[in-house]
């Protein structure tokens, strides 16, 4: 290879996965879920590079994610052994071109010019060995000064994907990009597949950081200016790098394809060629429930089941149960997804329209759009157990050594009962140590804090009572996680 600069993974993790509702929610989207195995889609994306035999090595990744997902993203990366990744927090969504520009600017600081391997966090690629071989081909082409994308060899006529038209061959495994086509009709898609001149547009890219910045400066200079200002005026916050909200909000929204890739052929003076490398590794963006059904193991009747499920006289279904028994009789080609607070029932061929359900629930301001009953926090999680007029019950789990913020509430009192572990409680000027079956009461307006000084998870039942029980009735005085 011409160069030995490190491959720098850039993981784009800003999606919401609305078509996989009710499992995927705004505060816990599909890339953070374990959908096809023991790893989440985000973790599987990074693990795909384990053992990659590249002379320049593979550096610690940059992950670009929504601020709302920062703590669970960091925790999932730590679980893989990435103790100090670069996590860039987007204060608002501006599509993939600004996200990549932020990552390229950050990766290029200090004079470095790594090869960026841009990977969406929500893809499934079963053949990891073949994927790594193709990444090595991409690195060679990127070192030669090309802007590389990977096109999926189609397995069927698909109207839900964009397509890339192959141009002239550039060696044994690469082609010039002759054009991009948006999602076609079924008849057009069938002609594309039979011609063998079109590939699915995967959203995977490789290029030098400096090359991307040069191209975005030519085609979308406002994106580069806004991203540079947003990064420069941002700040470090624990594991994260916060992007300035004012500057980034002013950034134009655009995709990598529209902003740069589609314009390269008409700007030959730039000296950058757009190259596509075919990829036949198996691939899915898990865009909807029917796509997941195609990926996961099935029984002899074609049923893919997960959780406590009983199926009789049914075939070709996807049935997920999270919190209770789900029984199905005499159904075919259906999707049934049960969570603690919502159930989806749909025909498998209609799951692309689940986003319409999400839009309606959002218009009705339903909380089921944004969060599960179980809500993750940097110190652990809590689960809504019950609620009614002027009361609410939660099950709270605090990780070993973790603590909630020092806080007070203006509108609610709280009663805590320790179920498992040992709790250290600050209540006004008092410091209490509570063990199993012991309790305490936090009056309205009293400063308080809950800590777990032990080596095992602390579990408590919290009973809230008062005239207003919203999560925004929190005044924080001190917080280990930088929350205001």
- Poorly predicted ranges: none
Spatial order of the strands forming the largest sheet? 18-19-20-27-22-25
The radius of gyration over CA amounts to 25 Å
For the terminal residues, how far apart are their CA atoms?
A: 49 Å
| Tally of DSSP β-strands | 28
Q: What proportion of the residues is helical, as a percent range?
A: 10-25%
Helix and strand content put the structural class at alpha/beta
What's the tally of helices? 11
User: What is the oligomeric state here?
Assistant: single chain
Beta-strand content estimate: 25-35%
User: Major sheet, described briefly?
Assistant: 6 strands, antiparallel
Shape: globular
Quick check: average pLDDT?
94
Overview of the structural elements:
The chain is 21% helix and 32% strand. It is of the alpha/beta class. The chain has helices at residues 41-47, 70-79, 96-107, 128-143, 186-195, 209-219, 221-232, 245-249, 256-259, 289-295, 354-363, and strands at residues 7-13, 62-66, 86-90, 115-120, 146-152, 163-169, 175-181, 198-208, 235-237, 240-242, 273-279, 304-306, 309-312, 318-321, 326-329, 334-338, 343-347, 374-377, 380-388, 391-398, 406-408, 412-420, 423-427, 430-434, 439-442, 448-451, 458-466, 475-478. The chain has a 6-stranded antiparallel beta sheet, with no helix packed on it. The chain has a 5-stranded mixed beta barrel with strand order 5-8-6-7-11. It starts with 6 loop residues before the first strand and ends in a 6-residue tail after the last strand. The chain is globular. Helix 2 links the parallel strand 2 and strand 3. The model has no long low-confidence stretch (mean pLDDT 94). It contains 11 helices and 28 strands.
């Amino acid at each position: 290879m011409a160069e030995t600069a490190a491959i720098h993974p850039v993981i784009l993790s800003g999606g919401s996965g609305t078509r996989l509702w009710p499992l995927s929610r705004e505060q816990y989207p599909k890339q953070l879920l374990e959908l096809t195995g023991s790893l989440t889609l985000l973790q599987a994306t990074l693990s795909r590079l384990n053992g990659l035999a590249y002379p320049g090595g593979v550096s610690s990744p940059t992950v670009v994610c929504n601020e709302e997902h920062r703590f669970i993203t960091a925790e999932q990366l730590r679980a893989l052994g990435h103790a100090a990744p670069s996590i860039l927090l987007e204060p608002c969504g501006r599509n993939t071109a600004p996200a990549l520009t932020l990552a390229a600017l950050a990766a290029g600081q200090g004079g470095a010019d790594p090869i960026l391997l841009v990977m969406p966090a929500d893809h499934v690629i079963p053949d990891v060995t073949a994927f790594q071989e193709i990444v090595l081909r991409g690195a060679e082409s990127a070192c030669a000064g090309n802007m590389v994308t990977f096109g999926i060899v189609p397995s069927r006529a698909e109207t839900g994907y964009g397509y890339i038209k192959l141009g002239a061959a550039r060696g044994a495994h690469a082609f010039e990009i002759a054009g991009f086509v948006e999602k076609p009709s079924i008849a057009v898609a069938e002609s594309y597949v039979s011609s063998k001149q079109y590939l699915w547009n995967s959203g995977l890219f490789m290029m030098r950081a400096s090359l991307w910045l040069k191209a975005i400066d030519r085609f979308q200079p406002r994106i580069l200016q806004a991203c540079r200002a947003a990064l420069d005026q941002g700040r470090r916050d624990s594991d994260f790098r916060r992007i300035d909200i004012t500057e980034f909000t002013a950034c134009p929204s655009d995709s990598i394809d529209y902003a740069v890739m589609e314009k390269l052929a008409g700007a030959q003076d730039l000296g950058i060629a757009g190259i596509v490398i075919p990829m036949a590794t198996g691939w899915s963006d898990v865009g909807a429930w029917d796509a997941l059904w195609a990926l996961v193991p099935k029984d002899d009747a074609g049923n893919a089941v997960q959780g406590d499920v009983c199926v009789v006289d049914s075939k070709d279904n996807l049935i997920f149960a999270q919190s209770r028994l789900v029984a199905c009789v005499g159904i075919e080609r259906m999707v049934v997804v049960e969570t603690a607070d919502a159930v989806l029932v749909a025909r498998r061929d209609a799951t692309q329209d689940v986003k319409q359900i999400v839009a309606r629930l959002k218009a009705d301001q339903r909380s089921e759009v944004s969060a599960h009953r179980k809500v993750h926090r940097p110190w652990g999680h809590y689960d809504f157990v019950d609620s009614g007029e002027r009361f609410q019950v939660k099950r709270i789990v605090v990780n070993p050594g973790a603590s909630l913020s020092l806080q007070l509430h203006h509108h609610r009192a709280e009663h805590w009962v320790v179920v498992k572990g040992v709790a250290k409680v600050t209540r006004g000027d008092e410091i209490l140590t509570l063990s199993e079956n012991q309790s305490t009461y936090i009056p309205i307006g009293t400063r308080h804090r809950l800590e777990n000084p032990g080596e095992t998870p602390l579990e408590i039942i919290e009973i809230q009572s008062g005239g207003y029980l919203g999560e925004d009735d929190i005044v924080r005085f001190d917080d280990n996680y930088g929350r205001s």
